[in-house]
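This protein record is not my work; I was only asked to verify it. Where you disagree with what is written, explain briefly why. This is what I was given:
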Amino acid sequence: MAKAHESEESVKPNIFMRIGLFIKQVIDELRKVVTPTAKELAGWSIAVFIFVVLLMALVSGMDFGLGKLTLWIFG
């Protein structure tokens, strides 16, 4: 058991090699990223804006409704 543990440690690269490998892997992954076109970016931005506005309306409506309900019950 002790020999197996020692051999694993000897195979493990030093900290600088591990950092270099990490950076290489990050760069390789970044090369796979596809930049959206202007039309796609605009479409997704509008979709997100509409979604946020709908959620704001929902939360505001619930806040207003629950506030009125609370005043009706306890007011």
